[in-house]
Amino acid sequence: MTSKSVNTENNRGNTSNYGFNSLPLNCESLNIIQENSQETSYENSQSEQNSGHFLEQESESQALSQTQAQEKILQTLFQTRLNLFRLFGSCQAQAVFDHQIHPEFSPIGWHLGHIAYTESLWILVKLGDIKNLSDLYAPVFANFPTAKAHRTNLPSLSEILDYVEIVRVETTRYLANSYQSEQARLWYWLIQHEVQHCETIALLLELNRVSSANHLSLEISDRSDNFSDNFSGNYFDSQMVNIPAGEFWQGSDQIFAQDNEQPKHLVKLDQFAIDRFPVTVGQYREFILAGGYQNPTWWSAAGWQWLQTEGINLPQYWQEENDNYPVCGVSWYEADAYARAIAKRLPTEAEWEKAATGTDPSFSNHNFANSGRSPIQQSSHNKSIYGCQDLLGNVWEWTATKFAPYPGFVPFPYLGYSATYFDQDHYVLRGGSWATGSMGLRSSFRNWYQPDVRQILAGFRCAINY
Ligand code: AVJ
Ligand code: FE
């Protein structure tokens, strides 16, 4: 059997606004979807006002028609792609697209090509048996075997952008002509794959911006002897919210849920209390000034070892800034030490998710609405039913829980997507950040990093037993 093939010539023409002319092509696909529709009525799909969280509101009883499902996927693909183009519209992104900004991450341009490669692999190859667009760039943009440090020898930015566009033309054509309802989960997985790589690109741009800024060097006095005096101050006496004991449903079985969020299952928790807000820059500064980085008492053995080996005495990207911003750029080790220093602990991921019950994502700082963090008190609508604030958006929050499968876990779409990281060496982060796209923002979503990664989009809040 010979596989199908598509024209790989640049059909972008002589435009400078990278990729933006895929808009009319998307519209063309929309026309095809509507022409192919056998239905007599789909007026709801046309008039629906989508806030960006239409998937959250979809109840399971309202099954979508084929046409509505195709339109929704097309619209979500397009909304997600707009964020990517916005990032690449910045001169900064173009200037640094082939440098490795940080040893833990591939260059920005690799993420861009990898987004398109992944789209060609899962839609064109796996569903459509069209192999050439995937084969062409697999050596550069597949996950293996290229090590991240060697991902600097990339095609030019305009060539990568052409690839991004050609793939999208073909995938939306496939969506319009050949979509089947059982493929919905794969499409939503793919969209979230793009959302996550978009967030990594935003993270790298933020690292690039911050690493060229002036950093504060704090005068740290050795106050570890009378440490308790410092920590009895009001500054650390942050408001906490009491969460009553009982069962709640952890995870999600919705069509867009990732494999690691499924299956949804009942979890019984004891009563606990959790910080109303994420830990702020001002609070974290007190920890630094009080000798937090000099006193092993508050550190895990692995954390203290890490701190000694790396010579760490401040968060990596520490800057003088608004005290009411949530602290960010801290590793799990630092978050854990801070919590212990004030006789608290990190919440488990189940506690975090229960505390987030009923949070409306649309009020949160996400989807690049703010191009950065926002002060914690700006989020008074971003509340759970327990009154816990700012759980979604702003910064990711480290939890005490190691990334592991829920009972009954089934890998999707490939074994290694999540299962590779069930290695007891990754901790779960929850809640998304200002750079998380709408499609990746929900209280059941699980992110994961190793405990020594100082993720610039990650902060934390604390909990206590009640
Ligand atoms: C969940 C964000 C840690 O970017 O490494 C992307 C998601 N997996 N492509 C990552 C992922 C494959 C992952 N994180
Ligand atoms: Fe990926």
**Terminal Cα separation, in Å?**
65 Å
Gyration radius, to the nearest Å? 23 Å
As for the CATH topology of the largest domain, it is: paralog of FGE (formylglycine-generating enzyme)
Structural class: alpha+beta
Task: Explain the overall architecture.
This protein is α+β, with helices and mostly antiparallel strands and 466 residues long. Helices cover 37% and strands 8% of the residues. The longest helix is centred in the middle third of the chain and has 28 residues, at 184-211. The N and C termini lie far apart (65 Å). The model is unreliable at 10-25, 40-54 and 220-235 (pLDDT under 50). It binds N,N,N-trimethyl-histidine (AVJ) and fe (iii) ion. Fe (iii) ion binds at residues 114, 118, 193, 197. Fe (iii) ion (FE) is lined by residues 114, 118, 193, 197.
SSE layout and pairing:
Elements: H1 22-36, H2 43-47, H3 54-57, H4 66-89, H5 91-95, H6 108-125, H7 132-141, H8 157-178, H9 184-211, H10 227-231, E1 240-243, E2 246-250, E3 265-269, E4 272-275, H11 281-289, H12 301-310, H13 332-341, H14 349-355, E5 396-402, E6 427-430, E7 447-449, E8 458-459, E9 463-465
Parallel strand pairs: 5-8
Antiparallel strand pairs: 1-4, 2-3, 4-9, 5-6, 6-7
Helix pairs in contact: 1-4, 1-8, 4-9, 6-7, 6-8, 6-9, 12-13
Residues 114, 118, 193, 197 line the site of fe (iii) ion.
